[in-house]
Amino acid sequence: MKHFITKDTPVTDETLNVIAHLPTKSLSAIVENEFFVKLRDRDFMRIAVLLAQKSYDEDGCPIGGVIIDNNTRRIVGKGHNTLVQDNDPYNHGETSAIRDAGRQDFSNNTIFTTLSPCDVCATLIYMRQFDRVVVGDVTNASGNEQMLREKGVKVDILEDPVGIALYAKYRTEKPELDLEDWKGLAACR
Ligand SMILES: O=c1cc[nH]c(=O)[nH]1
């Protein structure tokens, strides 16, 4: 059957939002391979930001993650923080995307995260041997980029102004939730 999103489909926020909301397992039936090939890093970061927006709209923490295969550029995992939605003490944008991708060898994969990875996510990124991480916001938070480089993970900064503004708004609205999510309950005491 013909794909719904093809190589001729324009790369718009609306199309990227459909991809953000679709289950990863359904993407191969709906999105033609060639569409993914034409997406640039900034487009995958947009998908991650649209997932962050979805989480914000659900009253959660606005952090999203997307994992792609470096050769095919297909999405193999994606997700967003669900600390609030799932009442889960630890489910960050990155861990959500990694869980969605499953127990893979990530040495030929790139993870896009809308926020600079926290200590636990950064550790997981190098422990699972990711080739590269692209960080969408080092304005609101930063700190683990150098450690990741020292562990052999390529780190690129690709700031997305919409994602940065969204995170700054959330932090102003819910400073305690931001602290709990980023640093854990220990930081709130
Ligand atoms: O890296 C981080 C930090 C806070 N929250 C997330 O979801 N990810």
UniProtKB/TrEMBL annotation:
It is an enzyme of class 3 (hydrolase). InterPro entries: APOBEC/CMP_deaminase_Zn-bd, CMP_dCMP_dom, Cytidine_deaminase-like. Pfam families: dCMP_cyt_deam_1 (PF00383). SUPFAM superfamilies: Cytidine deaminase-like. One of its GO terms (molecular function) is zinc ion binding. Keywords: Hydrolase, Metal-binding, Zinc. Its EC number is 3.5.4.1. Residues 39-155 form the CMP/dCMP-type deaminase domain. The keyword Heme does not apply. This is Cytosine deaminase. It comes from Methanosarcina siciliae T4/M.
